[in-house]
Amino acid sequence: RGVFHRSVRPGCIVISGRTAKLNGFGMSLGKPTPYQAPELLHGEPDPRSDLYSVGVTLAQLLTGSLPALGKLELPADVPRNLAQLIRKLVSREPMIRPANIKVVRDAFSAIF
């Protein structure tokens, strides 16, 4: 829709029943956070920038800690296709990430 969050993180996700909503738009205008895509430091955001943040959030959910930039170690019991999706989401290269959230949603539907 042309709106970029720029810093999706656990504190911005509100879950009610089976619905998740994102809040905190505009709060990323301060200093960079570990959830922000690397390209935001020197370029324009696009939907894949927010997908990076989603990937970091998922990795943190599964491991209990933030992944080191460029390194992602997931538990062995994480389904292979989910691990592959998260690895793509946290890629330093935007072009490796899924094109949009619909692709991510479809991948989740196939996994779960």
Descriptive notes:
The chain has 112 residues and is mainly alpha-helical. It has a single domain, classed as Transferase(Phosphotransferase), domain 1, CATH 1.10.510.10. The protein has 3 helices and 2 strands; from the N terminus they run ββααα. It has helices at residues 47-63, 80-89, 101-111, and strands at residues 13-16, 19-22. It has a two-stranded antiparallel ribbon. The protein is globular, with a radius of gyration of 13 Å. It starts with 12 loop residues before the first strand and ends with a helix. The relative contact order is 0.15. The model has no long low-confidence stretch (mean pLDDT 85).
Could you write a compact summary of the structure shown?
With 112 residues, the protein is mainly α. It is built from three helices and two strands, in the order E-E-H-H-H.
Helix content: 25-40%
**Helix run count:** 3
CATH topology: Transferase(Phosphotransferase), domain 1
Largest sheet: 2 strands, antiparallel
Quote the beta fraction.
5-15%
Mean pLDDT: 85
Low-confidence stretches: none
Q: Which structural class fits the helix and strand makeup?
A: mainly alpha
Total number of distinct structural domains = 1
Per CATH, the architecture is: Orthogonal Bundle
Query: What's the count of strands?
Result: 2
What is the distance, rounded to the nearest whole angstrom, between the alpha carbons of the first and last residues? 26 Å
Strand order of the largest sheet: 1-2
CATH homologous superfamily caption: Transferase(Phosphotransferase) domain 1
CATH class: Mainly Alpha
- Outline: globular
Order of helices and strands: EEHHH
Estimated radius of gyration? 13 Å
